[in-house]
Amino acid sequence: MSKQENKDKLRVYEYAKSLNMSSKEIITILKRLDIPVNNHMSVMENDAVSKVEQFFKDIKNNAAAKRDSAAASGGGQAKAASVSSSGNGRTPESKSQTQAGQDNSAIRSTSNNKNQSEKQVSMNNNKTTNQTKSAGVATQTRSNQSNGSSQNNSGSRPSSQGGDRQGSGRPQGQNNRPNPSGGPKRGPQNSGSRPSQGGGQGGNRPAQGGGQGGANRPQSSANRSGGDSGRPGSTQDRARRDGGGNNRGGQKRFEDGNRGGFRGGNNNRGGRGGRGGKGGQQQERREKIDNTPKKIIVRGEMTVGETAKLLHKDASEVIKKLISLGVMATINQELDMDTILLLAGDFGVEVEVKIPVEDDRFETLEENDDPADLEVRPPVVTIMGHVDHGKTTLLDTIRSTSVTAGEAGGITQHIGAYQVEINHKKITFLDTPGHEAFTAMRARGAQVTDMTIIVVAADDGVMPQTVEAINHAKAAGLPIIVAVNKIDKPGANPDKVKQELTEYELVPEEWGGDTIFVNVSAKQKLGIEELLEMILLVAEVNEYKANPNKRARGTVIEAELDKGRGPVARVLVQHGTLKIGDAFVAGNCFGRVRAMVNDKGRRLKEAGPSTPVEITGLTEVPGAGDPFMVFEDERKARSIADKRSITHRQSELNSNTRVTLDDLFNAIKEGEIKDLNVIIKGDVQGSVEALKSSLAKIEVEGVRVKIIHSGAGAITESDIILAAASNAIVIGFNVRPEAQAKLTAEQEKVDIRLHRVIYNVIEEIEQAMKGMLDPVFKESVIGHAEVRNTFKISKVGTIAGCMVTSGKISRSAEARLIRDGIVIFEGKIDSLKRFKDDAKEVAQGYECGITLDGYNDLKEGDTIEAFIMEEVKH
Ligand SMILES: Nc1nc2c(ncn2[C@@H]2O[C@H](COP(=O)(O)OP(=O)(O)OP(=O)(O)O)[C@@H](O)[C@H]2O)c(=O)[nH]1
């Protein structure tokens, strides 16, 4: 455009303001209209203003047309499309793409359209289509342009503008628009009638419009020009396709249009504006206007509105896209991650997902310490092994023999773990022995242990639980030290143990392997020091370190409600240092460390890494294996605990939805599921957890243990009531029922099982469950027959000639012979005959011959009762 004196010196920003639009939007429109503009301070000439206004008018017209067409049926649209496609069309482009014949008839154009529709569909299906469309436009445009111009030239469209226009419009047309045929003829038509408007495109578009959804944008641009040229078909089509976007004339819409429709419009205008030969540059410029981001960062679920904003899209466009993806959504609807990814992908936008770890899931938080801040910490050791191989004795012996001088005389506290010192180095032992407890912790995500001592009794050798323990330790990737115990016993054969363990890849060093074996006698206190030294050796090799100078983090080993002190948690500090007064979260509970006691009963002010301590100051009792972490203040701790308990409840609810007590009965009746409901009460949370995980592992076909309640402490009356209501049994592990609970249990006939050894509990439950599975049979009498005659036949025995008096007699049934009301015999029916033929069954009112298996003393007047055993369904 040439410069003009402008009288009023209206600047872009002023004009935008007058329309209640942003400068950016006006600039966008001006650029589309090929009106030079630099920035919001640029002066808008009258001509520019009128062109922009015309632009708005066009949009309004199109919107009106769309409204009109909305009433019309889809068929109408299709018709319009086909009409316009055959009637005109920018066929040259299409042709260039499809290589379709140039002389075309309406027929051919139609068929080509069809082909193209198909082609488009497949393109649209291609995930990259959109990207290609947007990203590839600039480059494509150029090549198209050249194609276009040459074609146009040949197609009687010398005008470079026209050529450019079409060329630039083509990329879109190419991608989407079929209109393949009709080309040459149309070219001339277009140039003749409305060259600058690219009428051919307009005509073309509708044709495609009929068939394709995915190709919208490009088409809509073309349509728009069609609309300009006043063709009803194209207008409708465009209106339909552009839909809410353009019609509403809104601001953002324009941006949306950038990538498709308006670009086409632009080109057309370009033609009008006489920017011949600059098509390529314009195209590039237009590319810049497309403000669809290349990449977005998503930090979680978002509403449609938020997503649209992030994608620099109008919400309506996003909603439309969602509909095309099969998701019906409103602007305020939350979109899940998958949908956001799908949506962005469809817009050709790359997504980087950055979901921040929330404080309330602090156990997943990974803290990377500067290696310089790390200090050596004591190793944390678990003792595992087969039942009665001496785990507890070994733990006791280690504890009693390795008390540091300063702590001697302290009152030993059971806090789930203890520390010993040897050669001025500490070792922490978890004192809930057994792999069940260990794995229960591990299952909860708690990685507490650094190494495992596998205890094997030298007089007993490798037993099933030894192997299990090895596998558990291996699964956790822990170093193993083998303590061959009870070497004091006469039958002890440590070498046999070594030999057996080679099968499990535990080869002693002296045999060329890398497993440390130590012969000990927990009872006689032999080899204990050597064992401890070996632990330190392994620790040294593995360099266990932690940063003591930060807020504490660790794991709850066990917890209980103490009558005097309230909730008490025994925790192992794993990182940082726990101090008196620290606010913290443990599991779903929170608190402030009121008092801290170590395993020797000494009050501590602070506890560093690998230190087990018992803390008070919690509001509730956390669970064994729960993570704990210190937070800046109690308020924060409380809010995190609250959030965690909500999440926990939800997940529990979800996990319980499969079987509710109500459903349980039906499920059992239908034979779908059989649950053994169990309530577990134990002395400490650690043993309860161990028992729970062991019970969960019981596998008896079709039946499973369902723990409906568990906790530390005596069996209370409320436990019994719950058990009665839920048809559950109560297992007490190292606890007794309270007096009232015992009474109620007797009244309610609730089964209480008291145990001191986990193994026994498992065995008992397993047997009970197997018992449940044994089918229960019920006798069902199916008929009676009266003996009328008897025939003795050698080799066969006595045949009773009978009349079936009730029901039926079946050969597979069992029978009892009744004489004078007394059962004389009970057994199988050997043969059942009707005349001379074998019969499967004989019904009431018929005669038959019966022989009984192993019984011949049948007499006239006897009654044979046939019965079957039916399985009683649970
Ligand atoms: N002679 C001898 N007996 C031992 C030794 N260690 C343990 N025992 C005995 O073996 C039995 C079982 O020992 P525990 O320490 O209870 O064994 P455990 O592996 O803890 O057993 P559970 O807790 O039942 O799994 C006890 O009677 C101990 O006194 C030992 O070194 N020598």
TrEMBL record:
Protein's recorded name: Translation initiation factor IF-2
Compartment(s) of residence: Cytoplasm
Source organism superkingdom: Bacteria
PANTHER family registered for this protein in UniProt: TR-TYPE G DOMAIN-CONTAINING PROTEIN, TRANSLATION INITIATION FACTOR IF-2-RELATED
Pfam families (UniProt xref): EF-G_D2, GTP_EFTU, IF-2, IF2_N
GO cellular component: cytosol
GO molecular function, one term: GTPase activity
NCBIfam families given in the database record: IF-2, small_GTP
UniProt entry keywords in alphabetical sequence: Cytoplasm, GTP-binding, Initiation factor, Nucleotide-binding, Protein biosynthesis
Biased composition (Gly residues): 197-214, 259-280
